[in-house]
Design brief:
The complex is a heterodimer of chains A (221) and B (355).
Chain A lengths: L11 E5 L3 H12 L3 E5 L8 H7 L4 E2 L2 H6 L3 E4 L18 E4 L5 H4 L12 H8 L4 E5 L5 H6 L11 E6 L2 H14 L2 E5 L21 H13 L1
Chain B lengths: L16 E6 L14 H17 L4 E4 L12 H10 L5 E4 L2 E2 L5 H14 L4 E6 L6 H4 L7 H16 L4 E3 L7 E4 L12 E5 L3 H10 L2 E5 L9 H13 L7 E9 L3 H23 L6 H8 L6 E3 L1 H15 L3 E5 L7 H23 L1
Parallel strand pairs in B: 1-2, 1-12, 2-3, 3-5, 4-5, 5-8, 8-9, 9-10, 10-11, 10-12
Antiparallel strand pairs in B: 6-7
Helix pairs in contact in B: 1-2, 1-11, 2-3, 3-5, 6-7, 10-11
Classes of the chains: A alpha/beta (221), B alpha/beta (355).
Chain lengths: 221, 355
């Protein structure tokens, strides 16, 4: 099988958020050879040192500049900041939602306190001009770095990628593969609820088959 | 940089500090019955006294507000330990500053500093529990602003002298004299960081030392944080400051004994926590990884634990290590034995290994 990562041109990535998750994602993406920029809410000078030390190779930029030049935007801000996030900033882009709604850790949030929808479905509804894909939310930021393995390695860990748009899912899957993980793709954001905290794959190190089985069993239960 | 980038060399200007932190979990008696909060707190005083008796440098108590960890007023317990000791440094590990008033925290620890003849310290942070936020009427979603403003105010208070400060999270202070005054300059103050790069920068900016709280996964991955701290201090024209490590563990006479004593209680604790937080329940396999060279837990014989401490202090450029000992269910006797082994066997061996 030929991996999609080798057939598509290298996508340009903008990571929004320079905290634990954002800095780690920027680092592993840059190490995978992607063109990566990283932005926080303000002046890139404020995160220059963080980028230089924690994500060498990722360019700190203003968010608007980073997004404009990117093929894929990763949203790695604290979820409680999301209600104030400007949807216009990422309109027309593929947006990876790496955030989690996790009330015991971060408190209850009105916008997300609705168990009929997954958090990424609520994010997608608000980012109506963007194509939202759920990924990277169910692996710890430190594991994201330490558990990378080359394609074909035995025990290679699998990450989930879920979205309503097959092309966007394919683009994000290629990035996940390239960073160092197998992919289990799901064909809707709704199905991506299986990746949420308390779900069958959250925080679990699973192979592709184990991951797919866990998600199927949870759906059947 | 001309050294290996992954290796942050410990700064020789800071002495090696080896200490113990505890959350003061309620323990059980010989019949398996939970002790009362009052008895658990009296036992904790004995543990602090024991820590000095076996030669350790620091004893810290973490703030919690739950029935299984009733240490909501650590400074009062530390004061009792201070009255029965002479040399050991005493501090919080951590103080949840975001949901407290920096003026009160300063007053309480400046008082402890007076009582103890200058042995008080604080580690400021959120800790891994969030119970204090609803208890004191704070919104967890304001966590960042609360912590940023309050560490800024605390840094001002530590300078001594009248304080003028304005912010959104507490009443302004204008030329306010806050007592008791410091006798001989600021007491040591650290910021506990669990992985947030902004917290590292904040510690550097406000003049705090850096305590890396490593409670899971590979300790080596924190090396970039030590580097970030050092470079931020330089860029902000701040003097060099020490880096410490806080990690959980348990020492017994042999690796097997430590494993058998610690594992069931660790499993029960994570099981309990995972009900509310969605953590994964550990397996014997994942636990074995955590207590191995690439994991965050220090569980084993004195030699095993000392080797791991020395290796990680070197990798992370740390001059301080606090073992977070104790775990709900471990008896007072086992904790006293852990303290004795840590003081008499582990600490001297770590110093020897670090040369």
């Amino acid at each position: 099988m030929i991996s999609a990562a080798h057939t598509l041109p290298s996508p340009r990535l903008a990571v929004l958020g320079a905290g634990r998750v954002g800095a780690t994602l920027a680092r592993v993406a840059a190490e995978a050879g992607l063109e990566v920029s990283i932005a926080a809410s303000g002046d890139p000078a404020a995160i220059a040192l963080i980028a230089q030390v924690l994500a060498p190779g990722a360019e700190p930029r203003w968010a608007a500049d980073a997004v404009r030049d990117a093929d894929v935007v990763v949203l790695a801000i604290p979820l409680h900041r999301f209600p104030a996030f400007d949807p216009g900033l990422v309109a027309g882009k593929i947006v990876v939602d790496a955030m989690n709604y996790w009330p015991p850790i971060d408190g209850v949030q009105e916008m997300f306190d609705d168990d009929r929808y997954g958090s990424s479905e609520i994010v997608a509804r608000r980012l109506a001009g963007s194509t939202v894909v759920k990924a990277f939310n169910h692996i710890g930021y430190h594991e994201l770095e330490s558990e990378r393995l080359p394609p074909g390695a035995p025990d290679r860990r699998s990450l989930g990628v879920a979205g309503d748009d097959p092309m966007a899912v394919a683009s994000v899957s290629a990035i996940v593969e390239r960073i160092g993980y197998d992919v289990v793709a799901m064909d809707s954001l709704r199905a991506g609820r299986a990746f949420e905290p308390g779900g069958p794959v959250f925080g679990a190190a699973l192979s592709r088959d184990e991951f797919a089985l866990a998600v199927r069993q949870a759906a059947a239960a | 940089m001309n050294t290996t980038p992954d290796l942050a060399v410990p700064d020789p200007q800071f002495p090696i500090v080896l200490g113990l932190d505890t959350f003061g979990d309620v323990t059980r008696d010989e019949h398996g019955q939970l002790l009362s909060h009052a008895q658990a707190i009296r036992n904790l005083v004995e543990q602090g006294v024991q820590a000095e008796a076996v030669g350790l440098d620091f004893f810290g108590i973490g703030e919690h507000h739950t029935p299984d960890i009733p240490l909501s007023a650590a400074d009062v317990v530390l004061s009792a330990i201070a009255a029965r000791t002479e040399r050991i440094r005493l501090g919080s590990a951590v103080t949840v500053l975001s949901s407290d008033d920096p003026v009160r925290v300063f007053q309480r620890y400046s008082t402890l500093n007076a009582v103890s003849n200058g042995r008080a310290e604080v580690i400021l942070g959120r800790g891994s529990s969030v119970d204090s936020f609803p208890l004191f009427g704070y919104d967890l979603q304001d966590y960042e602003e609360l912590f940023d403003e309050k560490t800024n105010l605390f840094a001002e208070l530590l300078k001594g002298g009248p304080v003028t400060w304005h912010g959104n999270t507490r009443a302004a202070l204008v030329d306010q004299d806050v007592v008791p005054h410091l006798e001989s300059g600021p007491f040591p103050a650290w910021i506990g960081v669990g992985g947030s790069p902004q917290s590292v920068i904040r510690a550097a900016r406000y003049g705090f030392s850096l305590m890396l709280a490593i409670i899971g996964g590979s300790p080596q991955r924190f090396a970039p944080f030590s580097q970030l701290f050092g470079q931020a201090l330089q860029q902000l024209s701040q003097p060099a400051r020490p880096v410490g490590i806080h990690s959980p563990g348990h020492v017994a006479h042999t690796d097997e004994q430590a494993f058998e004593e610690f594992w069931p209680h660790y499993l029960a604790m994570i099981r309990q926590v995972s009900k509310t937080r969605g953590f994964r329940t550990p397996t014997k396999e994942s636990f074995t990884r955590e207590i191995g060279p690439d994991g965050a837990l220090y569980v084993g014989s004195p030699e095993t634990v000392a080797q791991k401490i020395a290796a990680n202090m070197t990798t992370l450029g740390a001059t301080r290590f606090d073992l977070k000992y104790g775990m709900g269910g471990l008896s007072h006797d086992k904790l006293m034995s852990n303290i004795e082994l840590f003081g008499t066997k582990v600490a001297p061996r770590v110093r020897e290994l670090l040369g």
